[in-house]
C-alpha cells in the first residue's frame, strides 16, 4: 500500500493525457486544450503559466475545490503538478459550447439572440451553482460571463470557482493591472479588498447585465479607471434596452452599496427562477 503512489490523491500522471484536436481557448493564465485521459475520457486541460499561480498553496488547499460537486459547477477531475519544471495542468469537465460571453456574441451576430425566458433560465442556473458555493462558504471572486461555460444551447455551468485566490497578487489582483476585472467588482472589494459571497452577488448582477445585453459590456465606453470612479461614486448601469423591469430590479438589488442589503444567493435563486418561469409561460 502506498508504494509508488503520489502523496496527492488528485495527482494525475502526465503520461495519461493525449492532446486531441485544436486548442479550445487561450486564457489569460495559459492555453486550454482537449485531451483524452487514459485513452477514454475526453477532458479539458488548462495549462497554467507558472509565473502566475501560487502552486504550493493551490496544491495544498485546492483539494477542497475538487470536493465541490454540483450540476451547475464545471467538475475539476485532477491536476498534473509533476515535474515542477513543467506548467501545472488542471483537468476539468469538457464543455463543448465554450464561454457564455462568446456564445451570446455569436448568437447575437447571427441575428438569433436568446429570448428573455432562456436568458433568465441561464441566470437561474448560475444562481443555483452560486447558492451551493455560498452554502459551502466558497467565494468565487471572478464571476463573469467569460467564466461561465455552455454545455448545450440551453444550459450553463460555472468555471474557475475559487481559483482567483491562488493567482499571484502581482499578476492579477494588483489594482492597477489591466486584467483586474474592475467592472465586475463590488465597491467594498475595490476599496477595502473585502471579498464575501455578497461581493459575488454584486458580480452576479453584472452577469445578469451581460445576459440581458446579449454579451454587452458593463459601463460601456468607460475605461477601468473611469469605471472604478463610477463604482465608488455609486453610479450604476442603466436598464438595458428591452430588459424586463423584474430583471433590472434584481440587478439593482445586487448592486446595493451596503453588502448586507444585497440578497443572498439562497434568496436570488427562487426569485430568478420564478421570473424565468413567468417568461416561459407567458
Ligand atoms: P482564463 O480563466 O485563464 O482566462 P478560461 O478558463 O476562461 O481561461 O479559458 C479560456 C477559453 O477556453 C474559454 O473562454 C473557453 O472558450 C475555453 N475553455 C475553458 N475551459 C473549457 C472547458 N472546460 N471546456 C471547453 N472549453 C473551455
Automatic annotation (TrEMBL):
One GO MF term attached to the UniProt entry: non-membrane spanning protein tyrosine kinase activity
Protein kinase domain ranges (all copies): 18-280
Keyword Transferase: yes
Sequence positions that bind ATP: 46
Alphabetical GO biological process terms: cell development; morphogenesis of an epithelium
Residues making up the signal peptide according to the UniProt record: none
Assigned keywords, A-Z: ATP-binding, Kinase, Nucleotide-binding, SH2 domain, SH3 domain, Transferase, Tyrosine-protein kinase
Family classification: Belongs to the protein kinase superfamily. Tyr protein kinase family.
Full protein name: Tyrosine-protein kinase
Organism: Petrolisthes cinctipes
Organism phylogeny: Eukaryota, Metazoa, Ecdysozoa, Arthropoda, Crustacea
Amino acid at each position: 500500500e502506498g508504494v509508488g503512489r503520489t502523496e496527492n490523491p488528485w495527482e494525475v500522471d502526465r503520461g495519461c493525457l493525449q492532446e486531441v484536436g485544436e486548442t479550445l481557448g487561450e486564457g489569460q493564465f495559459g492555453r486550454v486544450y482537449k485531451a483524452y485521459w487514459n485513452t477514454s475520457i475526453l477532458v479539458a486541460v488548462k495549462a497554467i503559466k507558472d509565473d502566475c499561480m501560487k502552486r504550493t498553496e493551490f496544491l495544498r488547499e485546492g483539494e477542497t475545490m475538487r470536493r465541490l460537486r454540483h450540476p451547475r459547477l464545471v467538475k475539476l477531475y485532477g491536476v498534473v503538478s509533476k515535474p515542477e519544471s513543467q506548467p501545472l495542468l488542471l483537468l476539468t469537465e469538457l464543455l463543448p459550447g465554450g464561454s457564455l460571453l462568446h456564445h451570446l456574441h455569436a448568437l447575437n451576430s447571427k441575428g438569433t439572440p436568446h429570448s428573455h425566458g432562456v436568458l433568465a433560465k441561464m441566470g437561474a442556473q448560475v444562481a443555483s451553482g452560486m447558492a451551493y458555493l455560498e452554502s459551502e462558504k466558497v467565494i468565487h471572486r471572478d464571476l463573469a460571463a467569460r467564466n461561465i461555460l455552455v454545455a448545450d444551447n440551453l444550459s450553463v455551468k460555472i468555471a474557475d470557482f475559487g481559483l482567483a485566490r491562488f493567482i499571484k497578487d502581482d499578476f492579477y489582483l494588483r489594482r492597477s493591472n489591466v486584467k483586474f476585472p474592475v467592472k465586475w467588482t463590488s465597491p467594498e472589494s475595490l476599496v477595502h479588498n473585502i471579498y464575501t459571497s455578497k461581493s459575488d452577488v454584486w458580480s452576479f448582477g453584472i452577469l445578469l447585465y451581460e445576459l440581458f445585453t446579449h454579451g454587452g459590456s458593463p459601463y460601456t465606453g468607460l475605461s477601468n479607471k473611469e469605471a472604478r470612479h463610477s463604482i465608488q461614486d455609486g453610479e450604476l448601469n442603466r436598464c438595458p434596452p428591452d430588459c424586463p423591469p423584474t430583471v433590472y430590479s434584481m440587478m439593482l438589488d445586487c448592486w446595493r452599496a451596503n453588502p448586507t442589503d444585497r440578497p443572498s444567493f439562497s434568496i436570488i435563486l427562487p426569485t430568478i427562477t420564478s421570473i424565468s418561469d413567468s417568461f416561459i409561460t407567458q
